[in-house]
Amino acid sequence: MRNVERNAKHGHEEVVELTTSSQHHQELLNIEGELDVNSSDTYTVQQAVNLLGFGWFHVKLSLIVGLCWMADSMEMTILSIIGPTMQCDWNISTYQKALMTTVVFLGMMISPLFWSQLSHRYGRKSALTFCGVLLVLYSLLSSVAPNFIWLLILRGLVGFAIGCTPQSVTLYAEFLPSKYKGKCVVLMDCFWALGACFEITLALAVYPNFGWRWLLGLSAAPLLLFTALTPIAKDNNRQMLIGRLIVDYETNSPVQMRTLLKPELRKITLLLWFLWMSCAFCYYGLVLITVELFLKDKVNSVNQGCSTFNTQDFMDLLWITFSEFPGIFVTIAIIKRCGKKKTMAMQFLIFSGCVSILSLIKSRIYTTTVLFIARGVISGLFQAAYIYTPEIYPKNLRAVGVGGCSTIARIGAMATPFVSQVLLHNSSSSALNIYSLVGLLSAVACIILPDSKILG
Known about the structure:
Blueprint: H1 22-29, E1 42-44, H2 45-52, H3 56-77, H4 79-89, H5 94-110, H6 112-122, H7 124-142, H8 148-162, H9 166-174, H10 181-210, H11 212-218, H12 221-229, E2 244-246, H13 263-296, H14 311-322, H15 324-338, H16 340-358, H17 364-392, H18 398-426, H19 428-448
Parallel strand pairs: 1-2
C-alpha cells in the first residue's frame, strides 16, 4: 500500500547481489514477465523484489513486524484498563483519566516527522530498533511511576515512541513482491487484533493477583522480543540480475501535505481526513466505552467513583475484542461484492445503530453482543479505509496521502476520551448519541466520495 521509499544509492543491501553470469542473466529475464528490463539493462527496486519472490525471509519479517504491531495494539488496549484503575488507586478525576489516553495520542501525532528523518538518515531497521528500546524503557518506567504526573509524562513518551511503528509496515512493504502486498497488510491487521486479545488475556492473568504495575511491565514483553529479533538473516536463496539499479519514483521532488489540498484533490482529501478522524474517534471511543459500561454499575460511591475489574469483566472484554478477527475478514469479503464506498457507508450505519441502542439495553449479555458487533464493524472500517485511501490518490501521492490521513486520525483519537469517559460519566445517552451522529455523518461522507481507481 505504500510506495518503496528506500533510496537506490543505499544499494537496497538486503536484496541486491549481482551475478557475473550473462547466461543466468538472460534466463532471469524470461521468468514469466516478472521484470521488464529495458535495453540499457536497468531495473528498479520493486522489480528486484518481485524477482526474489516470497520466501523464508518474508516469513521471518512478517513475524517480527507482527510483534511490533502487536506491541502497538497492546499499548492502546491497556489504556482502557489503567484509566479506571488509576481512578481507584490514586483518586484521579474523570478529566485526568481521559488525559492519560489523550497524551499518548498527542505523542503519536507529533513524533512521525522525527522518526521519518531518523529512518531516512540511519535506515528504518535502526530506527525501529531504537524505537523498541525506548518503548521497553518507558513502559517499564511507567510501571514504577510514583505519581500521576510522572505516569502522564511517561505515557506521553510511550506515545512518542509508538509514532515510529508505522515505519515497520513501510519497511515490510518495501521487501514484499507486488502481488503479496495486499494479503500481507491484512496479516498485519490480524496481528493488531491478536495484540489486543493478548493484552486482555494478560490482564486476566496478571491484574487480579499483581495489579496494574505488573501488567504495565509485562506488557512490554513483545517489544523486548521485537527489539532482540530485528537483526535477522536475509536470504531467499535467489540471485539478482546484473545491471544498473534505478529508483522507481522521483526522489528529488519532495511532496508536501499541502499538495493534497490542491483544487482537484481538496474535496477528496477533506472527506478522507474526516473519515479517518471518525474511524479513530469511534474505534478508540468504543474500546473505552466498553470498559466504562461494564464498570459503571459497580461504582462504589464511598470511594468517589472507584470501580475494579473482575474475571467476568475481562472475559467479556476478551470476547468483544475477538470480534476484530471476523470483522477484518467479513469486510474483505463484502468489499469484493459491494465495493469499498458502499462497504464503509454500510459499516458506519451499522456502528451508528449499535451505539444508539446501547443506552436502551440493560442486560449484560445483550450489551456484550451489541458491543461485539460494533467492535467488529469499526475494526473492519479501518481495514477498508486503508485499502481505499491509497487507491484514490495518484501514485506519487499515495504515501503522503495515507500518512496525512493517519496523522489527522490522531485528532479524533485525542478527542474521544473526553466523550467516552468524561461525558459518558455525566450523561451516557449524550455521549452515545455523539458517536451515533459521527457514524451517520461519516456514512454520508462515504457516499459523496468518488469510486477508487482500483475497484474492490
